Amino acid sequence: MVKNGGTKIVLTASQTEISDFRNNPFIAFSGSFPHRMPIWSSRMLLFPPPPVENGRSRFAPYGLRKIEAGLLDNGFSQDDIMTVIPDDLNKVVGPDTKVVGISAMDPLGLAYVSFTYSTFLGWGNEPENMHAFQKIFRTKAIKKHKPKIIVGGAGSWQIGPKAQKLLGIDTVIIGEADEIAVEIFNKAVKGEALPARVKQKRSSPIEKIPLIKNAAVHGTVEISRGCGRNCQFCTPTMRKRRDMPIEKIVEEVKVNIANGNDMITLATEDLFLYCYDRTTKFHPNAMAVYNLIKNIAAVPGVNAIQPAHISLTPAVVDPEMISELTNIMYECCRYHYKGEPIITAETGIETASPRLIGKYMRGKCLPYKPEQWPEVILESYGILNDNNWTPLSTIIIGLPDEQESDTLTTLELVDDIFNYRSFLVPNLFANLEECILRNERRANFDACTDTQIELFQRCWEYNAHLWKQDWLGKNKTPMGFAQRLATTLIFNAAYLIYYRWGKGNLAKIRRDLLLKVSGTKPIEKISASLKAVKSALR
Ligand code: SF4
User: Fold this and answer.
1) pLDDT tens per residue, range 401-436
2) Closest ligand 1 atom, CA of 229?
3) Structural domain count, the chain
4) Is the CB of residue 100 below 6 angstroms from any atom belonging to ligand 1?
5) Do 287 and 190 share a domain, yes or no?
6) What is the pLDDT of residue 521?
7) What confidence score (pLDDT) does residue 7 get?
8) Cα angle value 196/198/203 (rounded, 5°)
9) How far is the CA of 219 from the centre of ligand 1 (A)?
10) Nearest 5°: CA angle at 272, between 203 and 312?
11) Which domain range does residue 263 map to?
12) Closest ligand 1 atom to Cα of 350
């Protein structure tokens, strides 16, 4: 029941964006999987809502916290604003609610991972991210009281004019909203006319970016914004690169810790290039990076530091920086491999083809040349692995003008990577609206060549080969057996119920991959696992 006619400004995000996926940023990728996949019946298990205190969500997406902070810094009070989980919208939206602001990271499932894996996995293709976003608009109180709706966030570009009209969104903000959002929310509160679409091309100067006042999901703090390497398929590079001052970062770390986080996620396109000297070709500033991490690690209550992204070349340019950094970060690892702490971060290989690197992402390999890229990847992998780093690397399949020889070069690289520890995420090329290649055609599985399909499968064979040992291992406890049984059951049930029946090229690709990864005899595997559990319990 809504109190006092509702709150003036309500902020929210979909269930898959506001959940911390049990404090596991890696599992958050599963928001890209199809909504109708049976695993979503265990929604509360996989992505439960964050705790709610006095009606407010304890955690919220970092971008939404920035909007909240901007409003608080510009005349609104905490009483004017409620940041809530979507399930609580009916409790705070009422006749007095002027505006609901919604964060949208991947509202229609068009980002790389959603697009690739919702298509690949089947089950109707609608990613959970999309389903969860649209569910917000079916909230009774929103339909009844019709407050103004403003949507922004990294994925707001996905909402075209048609979808905007269909969902009843008054304003879509595309680009950095730190400054413009305050102006638009003010208009909404005063009942003035709102612009339908705002494309913010300007990158906000650091002094105009507000500091969060409440905790963000996964303890996120922004250490830098923008990139500067100019890969043509990418959106962060369209923004000017800025490094946040350490004092501001530490202030946000403290806000997160004071509100119940013990892990800090560093939002950045490249931790290794924090405050690098712009007169160099992406040479890291090791002292600045150590200082940053030391200052964050020194905040009481910080147990884990999780960088979002790194690039590979700084590891080759300055291997000593990696080992020094490891000395500090090893104590703050979020993840483990076979029981040992590991440091992880996402990075982009994208392709091993010097031709495609030279054509679309020449900056990615700087200060090296495109021809050196495959060897730079392997050398950086060696340095990172030796220092307990495990990169999670993306690979793009079906870049415009990708030729057989390009795919083969990447396939060879993946074979070489079998000697290293990593996690590979192959994605189909997607023409994101904000990137330079936006007018190119998206890749799709039906149009993939046999070699491209082989590359996709090879990446997942590699992941299964490496991570099976960690997840399933040789743990002989009843828990270890139960884990093995559950995995066998899930994979084989998926095969027996769904994947064995499909027709066509894509169905065959799925089937082949599932059988390669999980084994070729589902029934026998299930009964072997059951026998193993029985004997362990005896
Ligand atoms: S290095 Fe990464 S973040 Fe930078 S432009 Fe390339 S893909 Fe984008």
Assistant:
1) 999 999 999 999 999 999 999 999 999 999 887 788
2) 5
3) 3
4) no
5) no
6) 57
7) 96
8) 170
9) 23
10) 105
11) 218-471
12) 7
